[in-house]
Predict the structure.
Amino acid sequence: MFERFTKDARDVVQGAVGHAEGARAQTVDPEHLLLALLDREGSRASFALGALGVGGRREAVRQALTEARRRAGLSRAEADALAGLGIDVSEIVARVEEAHGVGALSGDRKDRRRWSGHRSFSKDAKKVLEQALRVAVDRHERWIGDEHVLLALTVRPGVPAEVLADHGVTYESLTRVLGGDTGEACA
């Protein structure tokens, strides 16, 4: 599949690995893919994000991802579902951070030892990349660009889709900006 990735898409994948390494995360997650997309300039995805007004709000998107990571990667919808069962995620996060430090639930390595070895992609990150392929095929495009990765993040359930939607970036808004087939998102 990676042979069909454009240079921009490959740069996003490499950037995601860099974000995972910087966070000392054990795997590359969909959030890392979004962070790498936010770093991009001069690509189709960066154009689309800029056209949708995210260009000036990149730091707000990064902060929202950081907050979700503090909640052990739970989306607001998941936290709300737990609240319906009487489980206060904010209270749990506060207690764990009081005992173990800020960000203890993030899954990131806080020690300073160097992580040796290859960072694998989480199951969810792999599904985003597979979804990018399906998006490209559905749009009758031969190559998988960074815009396809961005489109895939909007249709996969989870924190990146939630954060993007909060900032006005949905599959539908992206297809309007990028042009092309505006049909159903392939879920």
Notes: The domain at 2-71+118-178 is CATH 1.10.1780.10 (Double Clp-N motif).
